[in-house]
Amino acid sequence: MPWRGASRLSVRPTARGWQALFAGVVTLVVARLIGTTQFHQLAYALLALPLASLALGVMGSRGLRYSRALPTGTRIMAGSPATLRLLLERSRFGATKASVVDRLPGPRSFDFSATREKSRLEVPLTFARRGVYAFGPAELRVADPFGLLRFARKDWKTMEVVVYPRVHELRGFPLRGGNVEAGTTGSRGRRGEEFANLREYRRGDDRRHIHWKSLARTGELFVKEFSLQAPRRHTVALDLRREGLRTQEDEIEDAVSAAASVLTHLARESLPFRLLDTGSSDANTGFGSDDDSYWEAMRLLATARADGVRHLGETVLGERGGLGEGVILVSRTRDEELPRCVRKLRDLGLSVIVVALATHTYRTPHVPGDASQGREAEFFKRVGRLEAAGATVRVVGHPAGVAGLSGARGAEAVR
Fold this sequence. Notes:
It is a single chain. By secondary structure, this protein is an alpha/beta fold. The protein folds into 3 domains: 60-164, Sandwich (Immunoglobulin-like), CATH 2.60.40; 195-226, no CATH class; 234-414, Rossmann fold (3-Layer(aba) Sandwich), CATH 3.40.50. Helix content is 29%, strand content 25%. The strands form 5 sheets. Strands 1-10-9-5-6 form a 5-stranded antiparallel beta sheet. The longest helix is centred in the N-terminal third of the chain and has 25 residues, at 37-61. It is elongated and about 125 Å long. The chain starts with 9 loop residues before the first strand and ends in a 19-residue tail after the last strand.
């Protein structure tokens, strides 16, 4: 948020301050009526107290500085506890009492030490939902040593905090480093280009890899050996198409969490990845395997919305040639063309894993004999068609959510 300039200091009497002013005015009136010197002196003393409080409060409020910070390297995940550090600095002549009302993102009040020039607080935070949150503006409040006046000043500085999607460990997910994956036939990884060693030529070796310098020096044939095949690249495609007038928040959150969990799994397996979604933003990433690439993708997922118009299969096929060697499709809307998309991807030699959301479990409870059984049967037919097309299918259903990906296989997750 742009700096809006220093706000004016507002001053208001406290309950004790109003009492002192009232007593001073009454005493002065009585002194005027009866003409007693002692009453005049008492009245002047009572009225002088607020003036002294004003001078001390103004002096103390000018030295106030407030700031917020997250611990170095902190990344906030939805549903996970985090800590925010608050710092209030003041001059040596600061007021005895100081408090801050800050929006984190809702209004919260904090009291700081009255005896320290630098007061620190650690505030626990937990966010139920992913997203980008703005902290601030804050109001700094101080009171004079006598407690007669309250001073307040706006601090317009804000802080943006990104809350990333909830991530689950995918222990049983069929994707591992070293090019060993479900849904593939043979090894289709890209050959590494890093030279590893020389060995004697054997019949059938590619002549393009003969080391001619060794032949000229020794008269014997040697071939170059390369490092193991380069890590397979995977595209994580997230279905963010809007279907119907209303979307279930839990369904969207689980779909985004599934994509985030798969990205995390790929990063831990040192497999290059990219994110592709069907939302209206079209904010997709390129392939990468480092921390910057990972957090770039997670930042996009933090703000992802189900507002797209394209089907998942249509979007993925439009990216042919840039999908790498494997695709993980996170599907949550009805797409009758998705099995055809899977077959085309398999024909191109790509491995395909589908994480299918059982959307009927988010909308209607399972009651024997009602319409939900028909929706369940329709869903399992779609799963069957995807498996027949060559995809490895994992199912996410309510209430287990993405955590269920670590256990059940295929349709077993919601049965």
